[in-house]
Design goal:
By secondary structure, the protein is an alpha/beta fold. It is 39% helix and 14% strand. Strands 3-2-1-4-5-6 form a six-stranded parallel β-sheet, sandwiched between helices. The chain has a three-stranded antiparallel β-sheet with strand order 7-8-9, covered by helices on one side. Strands 11-10-12 form a three-stranded mixed β-sheet, with no helix packed on it.
Length: 396
């Protein structure tokens, strides 16, 4: 039996930050059940193209919700809260997670103190934008703006830019993953549950290791620098005949190797021998390098740089990333037994024993309320007429 296969996660989740975290838990083989309001549901279900021709199964939702089951439940109703508490006992739930605003915890009956009474060893996780004392809404770009990530992203002298991926969402998810693993270890050792409050803002700021130390200690402000590096040169994106290559010369030995190539010998100058000299003339040096690299194809340039062990990479399109042999063999899949439709998913950061045993295949992202009958009826033993009544009353 897989290490985590006997664990159950119940998650009142929407958007990205918490769904990505529970998606990671599904990679470990945990039983993940997502809760959604029976009317509104997860807004991300309706984002992106309707690629399946189904309601609330749009493309954006499909990317991080495979491997889960889905229930609808109105926690604003007493009957809904009673059902939640019954689920926590019957499943039983090991981890309860939510990214609701803190002001809704007690109102919905999902606060830690309430749920701990039902299951004392429960691990409870609340993900918020700015901590449990704040009810300020927080989308990923807002976190990028406030945390300084946008201040550091973009061309030198240009406008601030958002990152190409939602790091506050994904980074907070990874921090949450680590905290849950610590809580599970503690519970295994002591039998105690845990209450975890995780702030997306605090998570985002924690990535600013060099900028914060420099600003707070040395009074040196870092800002956008485009593709160059503050402390190493040459480090940048350089044009080729058919694209771009990113090259990173990290020390003087690598620079000597670079200028030993015939095409770069014109740059073998005393003032460039040390990194400090190259940094002092970074604009002119990068301009000279670009004039050379654009004479070759990306493949030709990569062959030369690889031969002298100067770190470099072609700037790959996402299609090229998918076809990369290191990626292709680790891609995940989800198959819909009802329609035969398959979707390709990004690889996990590492291959878990569950993914290995399942052939890297997860269950298809769940339809809205798809598992109501299975769990409310099968697990809780409620009659189909009860489920019909609850649906009519807006409880499920």
């Amino acid at each position: 039996m897989d290490l985590f296969s006997n664990l159950t996660v119940l998650s009142l989740e929407q958007a990205t930050v918490l769904p990505y975290l529970t998606y990671r838990l599904a990679h470990d083989g945990m039983r993940v059940i997502r809760l959604e309001h029976p009317v509104y549901g997860d807004p991300n279900r309706q984002i992106g193209d309707n690629v399946l021709g189904e309601e609330r199964m749009n493309a954006y939702f499909l990317c991080i919700n495979a491997g889960k089951k889905a229930l609808t439940l109105n926690l604003a109703e007493p009957q809904g809260q009673a059902l939640l508490h019954a689920l926590i006992r019957a499943l039983p739930v090991d981890i309860f997670a939510t990214n609701q605003l803190p002001r809704n915890y007690a109102k919905l009956g999902i606060d830690y103190d309430t749920l701990k009474k039902i299951k004392p060893d429960l691990i409870w996780l609340g993900v918020t934008g700015f901590g449990p004392d704040s009810n300020e809404g927080a989308y990923d770009p807002i976190l990028q703006a406030r945390s300084g990530l946008m201040e550091l992203t973009g061309e030198s002298g240009g406008d601030p830019q958002v990152l190409g991926i939602p790091l506050p969402d994904m980074g907070t998810s990874e921090h949450g993953y680590g905290l849950l693993m610590k809580a599970l270890l503690l519970r295994q050792a002591t039998g105690a549950g845990a209450c975890i409050h995780l702030s997306m803002f605090e998570s985002s700021v924690s990535w600013l290791t060099v900028p914060i130390t420099f600003a707070a200690t040395f009074k040196k402000a870092l800002s956008r620098r485009g593709n160059t590096h503050e402390f190493f040169c040459p480090v940048s994106v350089y044009p080729t005949q058919n694209g771009f290559v990113y090259m990173a010369v990290g020390n003087d030995r690598q620079w000597n190797a670079l200028v030993s190539l015939e095409m770069f010998q014109s740059l073998d100058r005393p003032d460039y021998a040390k990194n400090a000299g190259r940094i002092a003339d970074v604009k002119n040096l990068n301009r000279s390098i670009s004039a050379i690299t654009q004479l070759l194809s990306s493949e030709e340039l990569m062959e030369k740089l690889t031969a002298i062990t100067v770190p470099a990479s072609k700037i790959q399109t996402i299609r090229e990333v998918v076809a990369d042999p290191l990626v292709e063999r680790r891609l995940l899949h989800a198959a819909d037994r009802a329609t035969g439709r398959r979707i390709v998913l990004a690889p996990a950061p590492y291959l878990t024993s569950f993914l290995e045993s399942s052939g890297r295949e997860l269950s298809f992202p769940p339809r809205f309320g798809e598992h109501n009958a299975e769990i409310y009826g099968g697990l809780l033993g409620r009659a189909p007429s009860d489920l019909a009544d609850w649906k009519a009353q807006g409880i499920i």
